[in-house]
Amino acid sequence: MTDFERKLYQIFVNMRLYGKNPTLPELKRKTGKGEQEIREATKSLIRKGAIAWNKEKKIWVI
Questions:
Q1: Domains of the chain (ranges plus CATH)?
Q2: How many C-beta atoms lie closer than 10 Å to residue 59's C-beta?
Q3: b/e per residue, 14-42, with b = 16+ CB within 10 A?
Q4: 51-57 contacts, C-beta under 8 A, 24 or more apart
Q5: Whole-model pTM?
Q6: Do 51 and 45 touch, CB atoms closer than 8 A?
Q7: How far apart are CA 62 and CA 46, in angstroms?
Q8: Mind listing the pLDDT tens digit for each residue in 19-31?
């Protein structure tokens, strides 16, 4: 896991603790990265099994 993936994962974990889903603008603000970089890192985390999207509840599963 790269440093950016680890940072993104930690943001997902922290926001899930408070029952929130991070939005793309929030992720841009918190990471300082662009949309493409965030999407690539998120896809990488999904492929690694670190996170998953629950379509029914519309939440990230950690």
A1: 3-61 (1.10.10)
A2: 14
A3: ebbeeeeebeeeebeebbebeeeebeebb
A4: 51/9, 51/12
A5: 0.88
A6: yes
A7: 10
A8: 899 999 999 999 9
